[in-house]
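Re: Re: token formats

Sure, here are both.
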Amino acid sequence: MRREEEPDGEGGHALPGRRADREDLARVRGEGCRGWPGRWRSERRDRAEARRRPHGRRGRREDTDRGSATVWSLGAIAVLCVVFGAVLALGQAVVVRHRAAGGADLAALAAADHWSEGGPAACARAERLAAAQGVRLVRCAVVGDTSEVTAAAGRGPFTAEVRARAGPAGPARPEAPVGVAPG
């Protein structure tokens, strides 16, 4: 069933088989869509343009990746900065731990060496040696000829506490003659 042509009322122009709307009238007059505001565009034309433009953008399909290398580069640089910062923090923690261990060992040896002067004198000697090593003496105890010392180094999240003991090696064995296995 075919519709009849409907005159537009403005000079009798009409398109066969379709209703005359503003866009059709503009096309018949030769104006295209330029003479009419954008709101008069038909939905069909808008859908056709949306299909031609990927993701609702204007331009060719090749242009959709434009600038993505910059974004990827910035992301990679940010990840590398975070990894570098983590490696630096771990390195700092290791250095602080080694400093605390060295200071605690030396302080324990100093306290054990001066055990005969008494506990307070031995601990005072250990504290002076720890300060010279750049660590803080947290705890010092001298029991007999054995000393037990705890030293700390670093500040904030990079604080390390290390405990060390020092004393005599134990009872000495009688010397065996050279070349003979003890037995």
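Second one below.
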Amino acid sequence: MTVPEWYVAGWSVVRSWLSRSLRGDIGRRGEKAAADYLRKQGYRVMARNIRARWGEIDIVALAPDGHTVVVVEVKSRDLSVKPAEKVPVAPNGSATGESGAEGNGEVDSPAPGILPEWHVNRDKQRKLSGLAATMARRLGWSDRPMRFDVIGVDWLTAGRPRVRHYVGAFESTL
């Protein structure tokens, strides 16, 4: 029996949609895990998913000092359990958190390759800086110190996230 062409084409659309849906779910789960992690570290999460025409800020938090506004970009990935090996941290910050050894230049990772937080490139940093400046003006926070952190989240098959927190990952580009 021959499968109709429209049927095959239809499944490719479904697979594509499903892939995007699951990727979005991983992102939402990662943002929740990051917010939970920040709360445990003494941060006060002020807002999540602040949207503007040109982008989105994942998390805005108040640092444990009670004064510094922290703009957090969260990057997540879903992993199968594989033997742990060392991968270098991003050159712009040392990793801290549940899995990292602060300052040693390496992080335990269940899979080799590029960490999701490495995708916060110059363009993304510029976009986040602009969004944060606009947010600060609108909320009257221009007089407060502002910091940009990046959190990477790996989802293991056991369902427990592995979190890496890069404090002061980059400076504002504005």
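The CA atoms of residues 32 and 48 lie 9 Å apart. DSSP finds two helices and eight strands in the chain.
- S.
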